[in-house]
């Protein structure tokens, strides 16, 4: 009897202790619930860009002081819900999403501002941005599935303060993400592991994002299996559900007139059946928030802020019911403080680890990330280093996780995946200028780039250009370090080009200049924005009259020593909207072949500024020759053509001194470029003033040509294309069909 009494008392004590643990007020654990308060679960549906409405709902919950005890999310709902579960507020999530370049997030290629300087220079030289891979004798194109590098990197940075938490029940708010097993079609509920990977897996839209390999399972978007995970939230022990349905409504007949429209409708029909069934299971205390999203599609990420506002409006429609769940000012402040405290920051990094399938990148990872060992992770510094390595252009994906070893220490575990179409690449470019008067110049160029020749990123580059200015060139680029990025670069080239023959300030013919050059450069990359390079170059060749007034041919054999500085922060070389670019070079030629030495200085500066759809570009180029013969046409600077005195025939001016300034206005037209695959188009005008001169003493503003152009341009997949008309103050007019780099 006594023994039985002891057992009963022990059982009562256990039940009492358990109840006390479950019902105690929020006292260091954001997942505990105060006595008498119902446990609130939040269900966030999938819907792609439409899921940004969840942010608006969260902002309203914060404003009304409504606590959330558990979150279950699918796809975009998992991303927004996971960020909220990590301790961020609705407003903080909104700021993060507003700062994200969503178009860039759907491309694996880094934004141009994040490329290293070498890739930016390559971007300037070759119009077609997408390189073709060369593997053996096979040409390979990118596989079309996006790894989501930029999105993953953003989520890593935002969730780094809770990265050590691998049990999602221990997050500031308990969380579950829903994904779909691509092999079985079954639903995968993710409640532990790496938070960023869970969010990415749930948002891996088939055909757009590559599937995520998670603990041996190949996972894709959770919307295929459960787009509104009501049952998942309910299984976590809640009393009241707040369900936000931003999914796929059925469209009226007038919208079903295209293949994408019909395909989306088919998907909506399949998903709505399950959604409507799940909604029917809700009880009278549960609250449904239905944002009115109209024609916003799953891919309208540029409209994120408008969709967020629609979420706010939808929550306001049920505000009285939500307000009934609110805490007092004091209790809510305590609730928020506990959530904030959970974002205590990552622990010190004690080691670096590279996954077995990424061992070929062990050295650059050790070199570039070794600085973090022994230090708490600085999210911004880590992001910068990831960008520096990824910006070299060789990687399809570079990711890291905070992991714990068996002895309790934390470290960074890296995964690096080479471009699936690399490591050797073919790039192409085309340049065409036709003035509709019989003057046409055309060049087609190709580059073969053998990359990753060693662990420092050495490259062998071969260029071939045919057309008006044929060229064959090669360079061996040899970095000396992964960190400081000093390099040496032996190079050689054979080329020919035309120079206008000028008599009495009028073109009467043209010279043909041919040369063979070889040299050695030494330099250093300056972060990803610039480069300082010095070198020696031997050039020998000849010039002769190809068409025009007879003149004696000449030969040359000179050695040139140069120093060049480059800076580039432009967001685009085709139609820049922000940033600055500068290239300045000083060259000193030795006395060779009986020819007097020549010194040259060249400068190219441009800056872009935008507001709304408008852009203004200021652009200045100049060059000066000091010494040498005034008939030394190989050092002459050409001028004339579109945006180079647009009313003057292309390259019909040439001389040893030149300068031109331009002020260009662009306005984006139509909706091109607002979507993921659209082509941006522009109308614009330019004012240009410049000329060439025989001697520096002749340079004056009064002797410049003043030109104006009007143009229509499009940023096509093979480069920028223009239709333009130019006017010169002399009265001449020129029309252009122009394909090629203009800025």
Structural account:
With 743 residues, the chain is α+β, with helices and mostly antiparallel strands. It is 22% helix and 38% strand. The protein has 15 helices and 31 strands. A 16-stranded antiparallel beta barrel has the order 14-15-16-17-18-19-20-21-22-23-24-27-28-29-30-31. Strands 1, 2, 5, 6, 7, 8, 9 and 10 form an eight-stranded mixed sheet that branches. The chain is elongated. The termini are far apart. Residues 1-28 and 673-677 have low confidence and may be disordered.
Number of strands: 31
Taking pLDDT < 50 over at least 5 consecutive residues as the criterion, the unreliable ranges are 1-28, 673-677
Query: Treating each run of at least 4 consecutive H or I residues as one helix, how many helices?
Result: 15
- The neighbouring-strand order within the major sheet is 14-15-16-17-18-19-20-21-22-23-24-27-28-29-30-31
Question: Helix fraction?
Answer: 10-25%
Largest sheet: 16 strands, antiparallel, barrel
| Rg over C-alpha atoms, rounded to the nearest angstrom | 32 Å
Strand % is 35-45%
**Average pLDDT across residues?**
86
What's the shape?
elongated
Provide the structure class. alpha+beta
Q: How far is it from the N-terminal to the C-terminal residue, by CA?
A: 95 Å
